[in-house]
Amino acid sequence: MINEIQIEEIKINDEKIKIDYHYFTDSYYKLEIQQESDGWKINMILKKLNQKVEKKSKSILFQNYVENPKVFRCQFQKQTVAHLQIGYDSWNNRVRIWDINIDERFRRIGIGSKMIDFIKEYALNIKARVIVLETQTCNVPAINFYLKHGFELIGFDSIHYTNQDIQKKEVRIELGLIVF
Q1: Is this structure's pTM higher than 0.70?
Q2: CA distance 137 to 143
Q3: What is the mean pLDDT of the chain?
């Protein structure tokens, strides 16, 4: 089945490709930051939510803020089932994953893994040193997926989305994978 998945580049044009993100989560990573006399103590502890939460957001591909954007679509059974947007940060030689979005009906059949393998190969071909991405502490399904593929926590921003990100249980985290 995985061999039937085809990834093809989409060239930039006037068409705006809209992406709808949607997932459920029943847990989050609680961020605790404590300043001490000789530094900081930082913990991220997996906690259960009182109830399952649905998260939704929207995005548009080919945004101006993406340096050297490349957008791809995944075809499966003659239909587009996923989109991928990456950028190349030339100043520090990093590939950034900006968007991975897989149609809910086609999740957990290997499309995401094939996309990650594709990105790794792309990064190796251009001799990028690392692949980085952003997700949120409440997107435990995505965090688990990236950890399974070798990514590690490389940082966080506790006030990226609002001044109450920690209280809202939705802190921006950065994950990274060293390519070479």
Answers
A1: yes
A2: 8
A3: 94
